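Just wondering, does anyone understand these tokens?
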Amino acid sequence: MSAQIDRYVSFRNVEWERRTAEVFDLLQVHFDTNTSPFWKYFLRQRDIAHYQGLDDLRVLHNFLPTLKDILEDLDDGVTLGKLEELEVLCM
């Protein structure tokens, strides 16, 4: 029996799960109001990633440049700031 390896061992005390959830909570407003056609695609890709066993931090990382561009265009400095903070600490 093999032990599960924590690939985020270097993120201890950074609270990456909480920070990732916080970014997704902030993004939810955009998902709900459909502020960009990208969101539908992004959410489908998130579902696929979860099916493959990937977590939300990986999903954000995969789409980081696009997310930053869209959030800048939407003038959502709060979400962009949280995303950039997560990028610096965990990506």
User: Anything to note?
Assistant: Residues 15-90 form one domain. The chain has one domain: 15-90. The helical segments are 16-33, 38-51, 56-62, 64-73, 77-90.
